[in-house]
Amino acid sequence: MKHLIEPTDLTVAETDSIIALAEDIIADRAKYSDVCRGKKLATLFYEPSTRTRLSFTSAMMELGGSVIGFSDAASSSVSKGETVADTVRVIASFADIIAMRHFKEGAPLVASQYAGIPVINAGDGSHAHPTQTLTDLLTIKREKGRLDHFTIGFCGDLKFGRTVHSLIKALSRYEGVRVILIAPDELRLPEYMRREVCDKCGIDYREVSTMEEVMPELDVLYMTRVQKERFLDEEEFNRVKDSFVLDPQKLAAAKSDMIVLHPLPRVNEITRAVDADPRAAYFRQVENGKFVRMALIYSLLRWAEGESRSTAPQIDPALVRPELACSNARCISTTEDVDPLFHVADDGTCRCAYCESRPR
After folding, report:
1. Could you give the C-alpha distances from 286 to 37, 75, 132, 202, in angstroms and in order?
2. Strand ordering across the sheet containing 177-182
3. What angle do CA 151, 52, 23 make, to 5 degrees?
4. Are 100 and 111 in contact (CB under 8 A)?
5. One domain, residues 41 and 108
6. How many domains does the chain have?
7. Are 257 and 351 in a shared domain?
8. Domain limits at 31?
9. pLDDT tens by residue, 322-359
10. Do residues 67 and 57 touch, judged by C-beta distance below 8 A?
11. Distance (Å, rounded) from C-alpha 154 to C-alpha 163?
12. Which one-letter DSSP state was computed for residue 262?
């Protein structure tokens, strides 16, 4: 059963096929208006969302399917203590595909082990957001005409930003992509991302402290908000929240065809005056999200045709390490009864399969 839990669950060929399908949907939406007739998408959103949840809902409806689910876990049996594994086994009786957003990192992976139907990770904590990545890739492709040989600057919260982590992983598989990391010391890209993705994949990257010093080099500027909900220390949040703000003065030094992306919502990191600039692509990016999710839903349902709906756990026994426990308090393995799963890196260190943290 094919799931999308993190961007590299799709091969480059599969990613490119979904992007190509999204472009075909944009060109002829009527051709796809009935392809999911009789199919149901379950949207299980355990934390707040506007764009992602409504994008999935709109995508399934435009494919001719229907949508069930919840947008507030407090109104479901989760409030009674039901586990993710039990929830998805129940939901699989009513739906054909699941889109899940969860505040616990690794929850969608657990869901994929038990659902017996395709599961899409719609964001899990600060870990991954693969459908935003597909949205970003489609936007870059439509705006720049390619997914290789360009320079992208990531600015703002690179420590907790799941959209940044996911997009860097995806771009690591395309040729000639240069990455510039623009962040304060408190919000730098995590060391494991630099070592295990950037260094391992040979990405040409460097770290800087201001966007002004690199603006003329960029083909894409990816802005992010400083996420208060990801900070354990409010004083630390207040110290860095206004560190990086894009305004017309900074944008004046950029290339005439550079594009500005943002996963949204923004707070004050892009001033309203930037919205009128044709290089501001973030609202076009939102619409692209609907089309790429249409392509993803349709593709996963087609790939699942003929497969059994067994809800017997699909767990790789090679990853089970009962002697280890995850050190991340935000990991699903710290609050639910799941198998402790760990990958072994090339250097012999272990990382949690749910959230990529080290063991305790």
Report:
1. 25, 28, 9, 30
2. 204-208, 177-182, 150-155, 220-223, 259-261
3. 60
4. yes
5. yes
6. 3
7. no
8. 7-129+287-303
9. 999 999 999 999 999 999 999 987 778 899 999 999 99
10. yes
11. 10
12. -
